Amino acid sequence: MTQAAIPALRSLRDHAIALGERLTDEEWTMPSDCAGWQVRDVYAHMGGVFHGVVDPAFMRTGDDPNDMESGMEVAVAERRSWPVADVLAEYIEYSGQAIEQFAGLQVEGMAELEIPMGNLGTHPLHILANAFVFDAYCHLRNDLLAPYGPIEGPLPEPSAAHVAPILEWMLAGLPQMCADGLAFMDSPVVLEIIGEGGTTTLFGPAGDPKVTISTTPDAFIRWGTSRSDWRDEGVILVGDEAYGAAFCDAVNVI
């Protein structure tokens, strides 16, 4: 079970609320680093998904119900006519309620139940909290706040408290979300994430690893979500570099 995700999510929620409450009218409409979304759209996405957790009638899907990202676009589009005060209020109200629901999923007997999540894969209920830590951290640190986003302000630190639950989600999702891109693999790779909250994982079929890929947690969260190119993030490949490069190119966790 992933109890650590609950306090991590609460702290990121506090950070997001504090940021939202100080944004100016101009900042709310600045382009975020999430393509096509303004700052207000990022909050609309986060609040809308939390609302859908609390009341599934508000969970949106696109033309393909298995494509989770298309559903996110539908929810954001619905909220573009809302006053920003209502966007922030939805986030505050439903994020708090959803976190309490996630805490209830950490109990034995419930935690291990697996649910299909479209193109995100199939996962045990307890890891849903990790997915939302991942979502909040990525949006705050990479899409909203400088140096990548448009808003000046303190960044959530890439501490073990945040990073460990995020990596648990990313590493659980990677083989499922990236299966088509990784179909070429005939030997495993070692993914070595070095730093606070980091871990070492073997990916691929049985056998001797062809390459070790070393990266930091913060860098992996960026290039592992296609927010940056791994070549620009100081990633080190030791062994079959072409094989390692093909692996890195195929990684896109959502």
Bulk shape: globular
Contiguous helical run count? 9
Integer tally of domains: 2
One letter per element, helices H and strands E, the order comes to HHHHHEEHHEEEHEH
Q: Structural class of the secondary structure composition?
A: alpha+beta
Low-confidence stretches: none
Rg: 18 Å
What characterizes the major β-sheet? 4 strands, mixed
Helix amount: 40-55%
Named at the architecture level, the CATH assignment of the largest domain is Up-down Bundle
Give the integer mean of the pLDDT values.
Answer: 91
Report the β-strand fraction as a percent range: 5-15%
Q: Termini, distance in Å? A: 21 Å
* CATH fold category name of the largest domain: Four Helix Bundle (Hemerythrin (Met), subunit A)
What's the CATH class label of the largest domain? Mainly Alpha
Number of strands: 6
Major sheet: arrangement of strands: 4-3-5-6
Q: Can you say what the CATH homologous superfamily of the largest domain is?
A: dinb family like domain
What does this structure look like?
There is one protein chain. The model has no long low-confidence stretch (mean pLDDT 91). The strands form two sheets. The chain has a four-stranded mixed sheet. Strands 1-2 form a two-stranded antiparallel sheet. The relative contact order is 0.13. Strand 1 and strand 2 form a beta hairpin. It starts with a helix and ends with a helix. Helix 1 packs parallel to helix 6, helix 3 crosses helix 4 and helix 3 packs across helix 5. The chain contains nine helices and six strands. It is globular and about 55 Å long. The chain folds into two domains: 154 residues, Four Helix Bundle (Hemerythrin (Met), subunit A) (Up-down Bundle); 73 residues, Nonspecific Lipid-transfer Protein, Chain A, CATH 3.30.1050. The longest helix has 21 residues. Helices cover 48% and strands 9% of the residues. The protein is an alpha+beta fold.
